[in-house]
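Reopening this one. Same input as before:
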Amino acid sequence: QVQLVESGGGLVHSGGSLRLSCVASDITFNFYTMGWYRQAPGKEREFVASLNWSGDTPSIADSLKGRFTISRDNAKEVHLQMTSLKPEDTAVYYCNLRRTVGFNYEAWGQGTRVTVSS
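Same output, byte for byte:
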């Protein structure tokens, strides 16, 4: 069972920045993507960003391009750098790992809360 642990959430003023981190453990396979989703109060969970297995192809939600970037230290640790934060970025941010070769498998972290005050 893959474990994903997020960190870095908190309270920030509008225009500020935050960096979220996610560390994965107990992975027994290769070829997966790691990324982030978020869920704002009263809304559905939405895609934020992801990074492919080789780490060379980031994917960012169109509405967040230019403000959010995703990077990694290695295949088991990814970061989400968020800049120029807006109150509408307020949400719980979830780390996600999805296997891309072999049987379907997906894991989620427990979530880290980001609150952007106006």
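So the earlier flakiness isn't reproducible anymore. For the record, DSSP finds no helices and eleven strands in the chain.
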